[in-house]
Amino acid sequence: MAIENSLSLSELNDRIAILRDNIRQLIEQAAGAGGAEVEERISERLEQQNAELEKLLKAREALPGQ
In the chain, fewer beta carbons within 10 Å around the N or the C end? Predict the structure, then answer.
């Protein structure tokens, strides 16, 4: 069982908020980043954060009563 499937609605909402903030910060970093290597690392991290966000959003939608 994936961890996102065992979280309460409140826990899911907290994690979703954290991920959205992380994504916002990464976008800000990308705007000021210099160099291809730094941009690549930020891009990879953004992909990871977005994938995790999608998982949590789907888990939240699957909760009873949602």
Answer: N
pLDDT digits (tens, 9 = 90+) for 4-52: 678 999 999 999 999 999 999 999 998 888 888 898 999 999 999 999 9
- How high is the pLDDT of residue 1? 45
- Tell me if 1 is assigned to some domain: no
Integer Cα distance of 43 and 63 in angstroms: 31
- As for how many domains the chain has, the answer is 1
Q: Sign of dihedral through CA atoms 13, 14, 16, 17? A: positive
Distances (CA, A) of 62 to 18, 27, 36: 20, 29, 39
CA-to-CA distance for 22 and 30, rounded, in angstroms?
A: 12
Is residue 30 within 8 A of residue 42, CB to CB? The reply is yes
pLDDT for the residue 27: 92
